[in-house]
Amino acid sequence: MVQFALWDILGFLVGAMRWTVLLSLIAFAGGGLMGLALLMLRFAKLPGVGTAVAWYVQLFQGTPLLMQLFLVYFGLALLGWDTSPMVAASLCLTLYASAYLTEIWRGCVMSIPQGQWEASSGLALTYAQQMRHVILPQAARVAIAPTVGFLVQVIKGTALASVIGFVELTKAGQMISNATYQPFMAYTLVGLMYFALCYPLSWWSQRLENRRLA
Amino acid sequence: MIEFDFGVVLAQWPMLAHGLVLTVALTLASAVLGTALGIACAWARLHGGRALRSATSAYVEAVRNTPFIIQLFFIFFGLPSLGIRLSVEVACVLAMVLNLGAYACEIVRAGLQATPKGQLEAAMSLALTPWQTFSRVVLPPALARIWPALVSQIIIVMLGSAVCGQISAEELSQAANLISSRTFRSFESYILVTLVYLALAMALRQCLNWVGPRFIFTSR
């Protein structure tokens, strides 16, 4: 029977944690860009587009992330693309993050007084200019705390990528548990590592929120 | 050309129905117990002693900053080493209750804190006991205030229950896994079950929005 030193286990988990961080960053950056594009479409007053974006959001917020992962994973295979779990998970979490972020940011844009829209259109700014120079800079101040808070949700969401076979922190924990027969130790360590990633962000988000309200 | 075959998937409808029933049962059990736990924790954070307050906030932060799947694995695979052996369904409900309890605690606390001071003074001058004040004066309007947020959180927990299939609870997502491996129609199985979840989420929101004002915080 092979014995594993705690040191080896920790090294393995930290190695896997880098993949959790990488996947979170990809999803957050991709989701942010796509969420911004969707936000622009949502307020563009094009017929039908706003409703379509609302349905997109409802679709992602009303179904389990796990099912979304399976659908993307098997859907890409169905289209004939030979995908790795990494690509499928990145794509799925990007779409997931874009739906949530565009909904969070919609609330922030709605909180900007109507007069700002009227004044900027009175100055003959185009829609893109209004957004770029007037609305988004003000909405961004409101948006920063909930956006940081959502990053925590993305990190927790990446744990489900383990189910389609991507070796990140959760999958690494399962492997350690299977190899050492010590699930209690394995999942405690993994839980603590997620906590170490998420808690500073939660704390920061809360502080930003308090500061804004103060 | 991709050809879909929903027929073979739909032929397995008893499995889907069975999964749906378990998902609904898990959700109802954890919604009731989780909300109760959330209210208890919110009370503890506002009125408890120092030790109780820090224990509650440690619990809330631990749950809110770790993924649900790890909480579930910890309860189902980890706890037996401490001699606590739970059946699959009990482990799922326990994980969901603990998860909802932590989020509900924060939601309910926000509602409790928004109680106008005058109401507390009025309750005191009517010689209500602290328990009567909490249960009859403070809590019902607080629940009415935060009901939409609580409903959203219950729906998030319902959707999260898809993960319970990973410890082989035979709920809806596990039904999709089984059907997909029986029929080799993965995409069809998952899209069908995903749509069932979507319908369930919408129905649950309607249902809770109807139940809340009538039975939970009856406004007279």
Defining key terms:
A: about 210 residues; mainly alpha; MetI-like fold; 8 helices; globular; B: about 220 residues; 9 helices
Describe the structure.
The complex is a heterodimer of chains A (214) and B (220). In chain A, helix 1 (6-42) runs antiparallel to helix 7 (169-180), helix 4 (85-110) packs across helix 6 (127-158) and helix 6 (127-158) packs antiparallel against helix 8. Chain A is built from eight helices and no strands. With 214 residues, chain A is mainly α. Helices cover 81% and strands 0% of the residues of chain A. Chain A starts with 5 loop residues before the first helix and ends with a helix. Chain B has 220 residues and is mainly α. Chain B is built from nine helices and no strands. Chain B has helices spanning 6-10, 13-47, 50-64, 68-78, 88-113, 117-125, 130-160, 172-183, 186-216.
Layout of secondary structure:
The complex is a heterodimer of chains A (214) and B (220).
Chain A: H1 6-42, H2 49-61, H3 65-78, H4 85-110, H5 114-122, H6 127-158, H7 169-180, H8 183-213
Chain B: H1 6-10, H2 13-47, H3 50-64, H4 68-78, H5 88-113, H6 117-125, H7 130-160, H8 172-183, H9 186-216
Largest sheet of chain B: none
Give the CA-based shape of chain A.
Answer: globular
Uncertain segments of chain B are none
Tally of structural domains of chain A = 1
Mean pLDDT of chain B: 92
- What is the element string of chain A, with H for helices and E for strands? HHHHHHHH
**In terms of structural class, how would the helical and strand content of chain A be classed?**
mainly alpha
Largest sheet of chain A: none
Secondary-structure arrangement, i.e. CATH architecture of the domain at 25-172 in chain B: Orthogonal Bundle
In which range does the helix fraction of chain A lie? Answer: over 70%
Give the overall shape of chain B, derived from the CA principal axes: elongated
Q: Averaged pLDDT of chain A, please?
A: 94
Strand content of chain B: under 5%
